[in-house]
Amino acid sequence: MSQKPRDSGVPGFPSLFPAKEEPESPFYTMLRSAPPDYLAQRPEPVELPPAFPKYYFFYGTLTAPAQVKKILDLPEEPQLRAAEIFGYTLAKWGDYPALINGNQGDVVKGFAYLVQSEEEAQKLSYYETNAYEVAPCWISFKDEKEPKEASGKVFMYAGDAQALLEQRFDRKLWNRQMAGKLG
C-alpha cells in the first residue's frame, strides 16, 4: 500500500506525515457491485395498511360526543377515548382553540375517535374548515383499553401560528375562512 503525502494546508508544502488509506467498507463494496436499482427492489409486494379505520385526536368542539354524532350523522353518540398528544400547544383562533406546533414537553389533552371511513374523515374536514389541515400525530390513550398508543390524525391550524401566539387576530379573515360554518 503506497502512502501519499497529506496536504499541510500551506500551498507547496506537503505534510510531514503521510496519509493513511482507509480500507473500503465491505458494505460499500457490495453496494458498488449491486445493480443500480438494488435498494428499490423488494423480494415481494408490500401491503400497505388500510387508511381506515384511523384514530383522530380532538381537542376543541369535537370533544363533545353530541357534536361528533351530529357532524357524522351517527345513530348514537360515539365513544370517545381520553387521550393526549405531545409536542403541540393550543392557541386561540377567534373563539376556537387552534393546535400548533409546541415544544417537546408540551401536552395537549383531549379525546380520540376511531374514524371508520374516508366519508367520515371528509365530513370532519368540512366541519373544521380550510383553516385547519389534517396532520399525522401519535396518540397516547389515558383509559384502560387497548391500544395504549396509536398513530393518528389531528386537525392543526393551517394559518400563521406566530400571529396566534402574538395574539394578532384578523376578524375579517376569520369570517371568510369560516364561510358561514359557525355552530
Automatic annotation (TrEMBL):
Keyword terms, alphabetized: Transferase
Transferase keyword on record: yes
InterPro entries, sorted: AIG2-like (IPR045038), AIG2-like_dom (IPR009288), GGCT-like (IPR013024), GGCT-like_sf (IPR036568)
Domain Gamma-glutamylcyclotransferase AIG2-like: 56-174
Region ranges (Disordered): 1-21
Gene Ontology MF: a single term: transferase activity
Signal peptide: none
Protein's name in the database: Putative gamma-glutamylcyclotransferase
Species of provenance: Aspergillus steynii IBT 23096
Lineage, uppermost ranks: Eukaryota, Fungi, Dikarya, Ascomycota, Pezizomycotina
